[in-house]
Amino acid sequence: MKKSLVILAATTMTIGLSACGSMNKIDRQGNIVNKEVKWGNPKYSTFKTSGTMHGGVQSVETLKLVHAGQTKAQILGIQGRPHYSEGFSTHEWNYIWNFYQPDGSYKQCQEKITFDSKMNSREPIWYPADCLVQPEPQQPIIVVPKEQPKPVEQFSLNSDFLFAFDKYTLKPEGVTKLSSIVDTLKQKQYNQIVIVGHTDRLGSDNYNQKLSEKRAITVAKFMTERGVPSEKIRAFGAGESTPVKECAGTKPTTELKACLAENRRVEIEVH
Fold first, then answer.
1. Residue 220 sits in the same domain as residue 199
2. Which of 211, 209, 194 is nearest to 155 (CA)?
3. Which of 8, 59, 75, 169 pairs with 65 at a CA distance of 20 to 30 A?
């Protein structure tokens, strides 16, 4: 049976997003405050399952693992990056999912996750609302879930090694390390490189966000200058939102800076 794609138009469509924009106005609690919820037009999604199908394919069981109170890093680990051009600093992520139907077609749904001022998620919103309620199959169907693509390579580089403290210009040893990574990538087949800059919690949220973005962009520029195709690179700044180590204290002492060093990092994921 030839499969068809059923596209459900949302109430209000927006054409696209900037790298750091949101479709809706979000308050500090993560609530959508505009009168009508805005949804993306699937044809402007940056994610495709195939050449013609916009959005992804994921099991309902996996999608139900996303709930209120999660960080962006946790959501990335469950269902991957958002399906529009939305970065780490925006308070809204949007996804498009295609659910296989008993008649051989696909039902297309949209998932919206909003975040509060601390970048903790609210409960996902779905359009249509019954997307996670799947119909009973007309006949037994054996579904073999597609294995999610694993990164070809992953690198986590300490920012103190790459940059001077509070700076975003590469140090000589940082140049050497990144040159080695680029040489490694030239031997690999890959579709995309995601670069994410992270900071510790010292300083203001806004300052740390900008510093993490500048460091990610510095690494991206270095790689493109050495032959990595720019269209395959996406660079984000996550600021202080995803620490890997917690340390006591608030004053920026030498001891606290040393304790928080693991959080000052640049992560490179190759797909």
1. yes
2. 194
3. 8
